[in-house]
What does this fold into?
Amino acid sequence: MKKIKTCIFPVAGLGSRFLPATKSIPKEMLVVVDKPLIQYAVEEAKAAGIERFIFVTSQGKSAIEDHFDSSPVLEETLRKRGKNVEVERLEALRLDPGQAIYIRQQAPLGLGHAVLCAQHLVNEDAFALILADDLVLAETPCLQQMIQEYNPQDGNMVGVMEVPMEQTNRYGILDVFQNKGEKVLARNVVEKPSLEKSPSNIAIIGRYILNQSIFGYLKNQTPGAGGEIQLTDAIQAMIKEVPLCGYRYKGQRFDCGTKEGWLEANLAFAFEQPDLRINLQKNLQKYFSFSENKKEGKQKECA
Ligand code: G1P
It folds into this structure.
C-alpha cells in the first residue's frame, strides 16, 4: 500500500467566534496550554508519517508561516543565555526545507473551495486533511490511527464521533448502513442537517483521508449549506464511485472553534501535564466557589 505523505491544513477561516482575540492573530494560532492549535495539528500529521504540509491560508495569516520558520535572532539570543531547552523546543517545531507549502484561498468560499485550492500540489492517490480547530487528545494521534486502519478500498475515510441529535446541524452527518468494528460504511452524507432531517448522529470531525478524485467533484460543486462550497457535498457526489467509510477514533475531541471547547481543551491538556495538574485541581475548586459566592452576593477575596 502506498504511504500517505501529504496533508492539507485549511487555515483561511475568519475565526469570528473568537473576536476580538482573532482580529490580528489567526484563530489557528490560539494557544491551548502552551502550543498553538496549528502546531498540535502539524505534530499529529508528523506522527502519522506526513512529509508535505500544505497550508491553505488567507490574508492576515502570516503568523502561521513565521511559526514554522526558523527564527535565528531569537534562537541565538536564547543560546547565549543558556536556554537550551527552549532552543530545542523551537528547533523541534521547524519543518524541513520544502516540506511546508503555503497557498492562498483568495475568497472565503468554503471548506470545499479551500481544499480545491491545493489541487495542483497533490500528486498521490490519497491525501490527508486536518481541521486544526478540532483538537483530539489521544494515546495514538487521531490521524495515525486512521492511516493505520486505512485501506484504499475504503475510498474516502473520515474521523467520526456520536453527537447529541440536537447538534447535528453543526456537522457533516453519515447515513450508515454497516458497522464493521471501528469502521462504519455510509450510503450517504449530508452537511449540517436539521434534527428532523438528520439520518443519524454519526458526525464527521476534522480528520479526513481523501481520494484525489475528489478534486474533480469539488470543481463542479455548487454552494451548499451556508452558501459555501462544502467538502461534504463533494464526498456525497462521489459516493457511488468512491465509497465513504467513517472511522471511530479513540480519543477525546475538542471543538476549539468554540469558547467552551477551547476552554475544555485547555483543562484537559493541562491535566496531562503533571506540573500543572495539582495546582489546577485545587484552583478550579477555588474559582468555582468564588463565582458561586459572587452569585449569592457573598463576595470574598479569591486568594
Ligand atoms: C466542517 C465540515 C463538517 C465537519 C466539521 C467538523 O464544518 O464542513 O462536515 O463535521 O467541520 O468540525 P465547520 O465546523 O467548518 O462548519
In short: The chain has a mean pLDDT of 93. Residues 274-295 form the longest helix (22 residues).
